[in-house]
Amino acid sequence: MVILNYYSKMQNISNSNIHLDQITKEIVDIMTGEKCIIMILGTAQDAGVPQLGCDCSNCTRAFTDNKFKRLVTSIGIINQATGKTYIIDSTPNFAEQFINLHKLKTRYISKPESPRLKRVRSRLDLDGIFLTHAHMGHYFGLVQLGKEACATLKLPVFATSAMRKFITGNRPFKELVKNHNIELHSIIPGKPCLNEKDLIITPISVPHRHEFSDTVGFIIQGPNKRLLYIPDINNLTRSLLNVILRSDLVLFDGTFFDKGEISSRRKWEPIAHPPIIETMNVLGSYVRRTKIYYTHFNHTNPVLNPESDEAKEVKGMGFGITPEGWTFGI
Q1: Which sequence spans correspond to the domains of the chain?
Q2: What CATH number belongs to 2-11+23-329?
Q3: Contact 223, 35 (CB under 8 A)
Q4: What is this structure's pTM?
């Protein structure tokens, strides 16, 4: 299929970011004919790269060279069959990420009569936001939808009951519901929360720190391929391993390369992201069947440097390091 050729070509990109203006005609041609398009909108941990108050090598480089900048982890979905657009997680970089997705849609994918980007008191050219959990980097961008900013009207937001309770119980997010900027829709793990032509989205429960809400990942089924999106996780369970095995592509928690990244002043246990070096050992046999790419990188992660030994090790073991701007069909 076309998508397999595209994955092969993407192997040459390493983990460099792909700026929207640098999307080549070849990549656009490869996307032509794909019915459901995924765009990687961000790949960093909740605070992004560079991170405030940090002088590590990754942040120092990103402060001086934008090509090393990483936005907070998020993906966009464009369903050409319906003309609808979705985003998973509303990050602190939500405004920039939405604009990038919209530019992609109008410049390369949609027909000329596609809705124009509007900054008015109505809906964006966006048909829904799916939330994974209540950690800062995954929902905080919702404030951009309020009356002080875009002032959307009943924009659908899909969330678990615990996540909905968090939103309706805390300002300023509860005001978004009260003022009809967003409209909350319940999702139940294991049951499709969106089922339309060429696109089915199903949440799955994921073990993670549940200080404020539970956590879900998403199975995104297109007409040709199945994508599993799990940016945050505590540990791999047998049930999740089975889901990975049944997926064509997995975007998986790569927050840390190893436990040595954490300062001695902080304990590892409350952070609870499995290091890449450990999950590669568990998932090593899976890469023969499933394409597995890491995402959600902490600013300390050495794989952010494409020339690092750690980045080369990840690629050498058959895994990928997700580049921002990566666009592909499923």
Answers
A1: 2-11+23-329
A2: 3.60.15.10
A3: yes
A4: 0.87
